[in-house]
Amino acid sequence: MVPRRAFTITEKVDIISRLESGENNVDVCKQLGVSHSTISAIWKNRVKILECFLSKSTKMKRNRKSTYPDIERALLAWFKEQRNQNVISGRLLQEKANQFARQLGKRNFECTGSWIYRFRQRNDIKLGKVDEEAAESHTSFPEEVNDEIKVTDNLTDNKIIEPVLLKQEEEDEEEDCDQCEIPTTQDALCALETLKKYCLFGEGRNKLDLESIVKMEYTLQRAQRTQQLLQDRFSENRRKRQVDFVFSDDPAEIGDGRGTYFIKYNNVPMGVERVGDRLFITLPRRRYGIPATLNYVNLQERSRSPALKPYPTVEDRSLISVYRTRADECGRLWMVDTGLLEIPGDPQQIRPPAIVIYNLNTDRQILRYDFKTSDIPATNTPTGLASITIDINGDCDDAYAYVPDLTTFGLIVFSLKDLDSWRLSHNYFHFNPTAGNLQVSGEFFQWSDGLFSITLTPPARCRTAYFHPLISTEEFSVSTCLLKNKTASTDRYYFDAYNYVGDRGRSSQSTMHGYHEKTGVIFFADIGRDAVSCWNSGNILNPANVAVLVRDGKRMSYPSDLHITGDEVWVMANTLPRFGYSRLDPNEYNFYIYRANVYDLISDTVCQSKSMFDQ
């Protein structure tokens, strides 16, 4: 007897394609080692299989399924019974979901606010107490909840759990379309061509109308164009499922004795910067188990998923938590060490927040400047010191650093020559509340981050500093001469010296941005639309003058850093919201580093000026 084999949805589509091209059923059976009836069943159900395969490409993002369907079934049944008897809050739903998770043996499940939000979105649930008529009119519950779980006035948790466990056992024995791999757009387009042949001529029981096929084809072709843009314009330099390190010693020996020296899952890269043959990568300490906050990889290494090397050495313990770095033309690497372990529920300020500078030729620390008390107005201010911009005009000793404070809405200016710092305030440093609702990596949340990124025009005595809050779609500017004047904030015209530049458009909330000196083009890392965009600063800033260069909801999810090095744009994407609000899948690629040539990026876009290539 030929053993039964379970095929994935992609393998089934491949079998259908082989049979469609004229390959013999018997030959396919022999090659795959399965019975004739197995292949015949796939061919008989080809329309349904193709539709299922295509639905993964066109509907996955819009109709995201629950990662824990058994918990959702139980919670839905409980909610249906309770909704016309008690007032149900979101917190009560969370507690009940966690309770069902324990009863169902889901040890890794922890119900978050965003999970409840998506649960309510999927099932059209409005909280509070409803009358019986309204309850009866509620029709969004899946059929299996109504059919398998008979709701009564005395429904107990055990009565809810039993049919859910039974359903779970049944699903373990058969393939679930929603759990299958997501096909590439090219595979999906090929499947669509086959499906069109059957459906348009009425073959099969499920006949698609022409309008549905056209919409599906348009969606797939648009997705294919977007993916092709990412491949054409950006070179995927490095990618990681999870972060690894190169240790000179056994991690267990140099750890803290509690098993928290290295917890692979907790290591989420944030910043990236190329300096020569080294690529610096930061991992701020927002959880336990992060061996080194500043690291690098050698670009001469061929591996696309290399292990990180702690900088300057594994033994160095001086840095606590660094978000992003910036190198200057004087061979120095600058950063802000927040000095803070940002452990949820247990933050620990290990050292005062400080500006730290390394000599890149010797890899030695040459300065640690602790911020003054007047620079840090609140205990949570260090959490917002997430970037740094360096300003040098020919004299390496007369350098300035600008440090945005996204948490308590300020700007810290540091003078290397005077070893002094001062804090500036302005309304433009605050977030825009109308831009605070975000949907990234399938997570829905609201943020209130203020001043985040500053980028400068070419070196001069007075440069233009372009800046923006993270939670805003607007850009602002100010002269660096004002920033470098320690007493400027006491001038009566101080607030009028700042300028509103324009609006980049809907969903253009941006982490970092960078100015390319030769072209005057500014590049933005747009978290609101999983994209990289550009604007030629010689034009008025409005949505029509902003070009979205690449956009990808998976591989460009949450671009956390963007930096211009020469004529190259470097971008880090790290899927951060999923780490914070849900859970990363360690079997998928979660972290990406991209590199692109500036001129290739802006070619044939609104960012390219007519004279740009006439030099």
From TrEMBL:
SUPFAM superfamilies: Homeodomain-like. GO terms for molecular function: DNA binding. Residues 59-129 form the HTH CENPB-type domain. Its main location: nucleus. The keyword Lyase does not apply. Keywords: DNA-binding, Nucleus, Secreted, Signal. It is found in: Nucleus; Secreted. GO terms for cellular component: extracellular region; nucleus. Coiled coil: none annotated. InterPro entries: 6-blade_b-propeller_TolB-like, Homeodomain-like_sf, HTH_CenpB_DNA-bd_dom, HTH_Psq, MRJP/yellow-related. Belongs to the major royal jelly protein family. This is (African queen) hypothetical protein. It comes from Danaus chrysippus.
